[in-house]
Amino acid sequence: MVFAVVVILAAVIIIGWFIGQSNRLNRYVVSIEESKKTVDITLAKRYDTISEMLKVAKAYAKHEEKVFTELVGLRQSASIQETNRAMANQNDVLSQIRAVAENYPDLMSSQQFLTLQKEIASENDELAASKRIVNSNVRVMNQAIVSFPTSLVAGFKGMSKFDFLEEDLEGKKDLKDLDYNID
């Protein structure tokens, strides 16, 4: 009789722990999805600003059609991989817009273009902050997934480690380019 009570009590404790860990992992997923939506909103705003920059640039460079057609499909995304692709594509288009702008000094001095450049800089800051939040949430989730005994619950639920949003390395120097010589 005592043995049966101990077994039932142990089973209840294990089931309760399992449910608690499962709920914790579910909350982590919700946090990741929520913070990812912030990135998607920022990417949508950035897309709109890039579209406006293209309209302004088009007036100056009608023959630069290649740049303007590449903006298609760069708006919102669903998965982390798609978000990484959208950010990379937007960065490519921005680089091309800047290259077009260098060929047209009047465009570079246009108040509307300068205002849009400031908006892009602000949106880049928002995007970086949003990416840090997503990656922080992903880090917490991944740590839980690989930590024993929570890894047992994650395995049972079929969960695997989440991907991180990629760091924007545009314009950053490679460590091999640094001069380490101390005279």
UniProtKB/TrEMBL annotation:
Keywords: Membrane, Transmembrane, Transmembrane helix
Keyword Zinc: no
Residue ranges of coiled coil: none
InterPro entries, A to Z: LemA-like_dom_sf, MamQ_LemA
Subcellular location: Membrane
Topology versus the membrane: Single-pass membrane protein
Domain of life: Bacteria
Record carries keyword Transcription: no
A GO CC term attached to the entry: membrane
Pfam families: LemA
Annotated family: Belongs to the LemA family.
Record-given protein name: LemA family protein
Organism (species): Shuttleworthella satelles DSM 14600
